[in-house]
Amino acid sequence: MKTFFHRRREKDKKSLGLRSFKSRKHEQSFLRVGIVGCGRVAQRHIRFINETKNARVVGLVDTNEVTARRFKAPYGVSNVHGSLDSLLDSTTLDVIHISTPPAYHYVDAMDAINRGIHVFIEKPITLNAHEAEELYSRAMTKPVLICPDFQQLFHPGFQHALSIINSGLLGRVVHVESHWSGKLDTQIAGEGRLHWSFELPGGVLRNNITHLLYLVLYFIGMPERVMVSAKSYGIMDHLSIMLEGKQCTASVVQSLVIGPQTFYVRIFCENGAILVNFETSTVLVRRKSSMPRSLNWAISTYNDAYQLCAYGTKNIINFMRRRLVPYQGLKTLVPRFYASINDSTDPPVSRELALAVTKTEEAVFGQSSGDAIKQTCEVNGEPKSRSQIRDNVEITLRDSLLI
């Protein structure tokens, strides 16, 4: 089964001017990697980069150099700078990882691309679709590769689900739903100053909506219609999204009200369904049964229990072997991106998917211009404030938003 983003035209790499890392640097055995933005997630990046055989972190950037220098002892990175320009002027890089707040993604990525450096960029890629398109267009002229951190696509559970779907066992994908709910991270909510995620267009939910969207857009492609329903309880927001694609539909829920913390994607097919639970690192497969309904009711619970017990055992073993780690998808995605640089192949996350996600984010949070958006802008006759996510929004994506 080929998804929307697998049905792409073949690229002529010679016409794009892509050359392998090996052919450009005969005497160099590893990729030289820099990181800009040394917050909490940077530690994961450094760890997974250094675990990759052909890459090393050679420079760090943070406006607070003290923050960046905390990685010197555990990872041996002493080349620390207070600005990206300072790092780029003093250090030769092959790849830059951008983990700054999203408002700086476009400028930082464009600076690196203009110097011929490949870019790995945290979510959201940019805060509007136009900037994302500019980055990809500029990258093609240099030529370098861009890879957004769509890490859950490379989580072992999601990869297992894809293998089942691609086998054709469950038939065509009909509907996909992704769900994240939980409370605010105490390290974000409890800081003395307002965390940058609260200042994003659309509020704090904008920070993680990317994960939920790429998990469904991977299957449905660019949505033809987006419907949004949102509720705000101060900073405790609840967002529900319905998406219509050409071949299937999708639903997305992100909530700071629902508990306990849950993160999953469920894929409904003609002959069954697959639930990938990222919170428990389990996969539950249900197939269409030809048994009488009463018998199916009696044994289906045992079938689910068998699968969950098998994953529980596997997770315990992997935990004991230190293979069950947070950000498992990122651990896989980073070396795959580096392999695409070395081998002059397409990056693991396609340009089409990246732009579809950015355009849908922009549409969901009401950032698009013109009459492409039809929305209710009043509550009880009073105009809504900019900080409040809009209620009962219906967005129609015009041809200008389609790839």
Task: Write out key terms for the chains shown.
403 residues; Rossmann fold; Dihydrodipicolinate Reductase, domain 2; alpha/beta; nine-stranded mixed β-sheet; globular; disordered C terminus
Largest sheet properties = 9 strands, mixed
**The CATH homology group name of the largest domain:** Dihydrodipicolinate Reductase, domain 2
**Rg calc:** 22 Å
- Uncertain runs with pLDDT below 50, 5 residues or more? 7-16, 367-403
- Separate helix tally: 14
Number of strands: 17
Strand content: 15-25%
Adjacency order of strands in the biggest sheet: 13-12-11-7-10-9-8-17-14
The amount of helix comes to 25-40%
State the distance separating the first and last CA atoms.
21 Å
Structural class: alpha/beta
Kindly identify the CATH topology of the largest domain.
Answer: Dihydrodipicolinate Reductase, domain 2
CATH architecture of the largest domain: 2-Layer Sandwich
User: What general outline do the C-alpha atoms trace?
Assistant: globular
Mean pLDDT: 82
So what's the oligomer here? single chain
The number of domains is 2
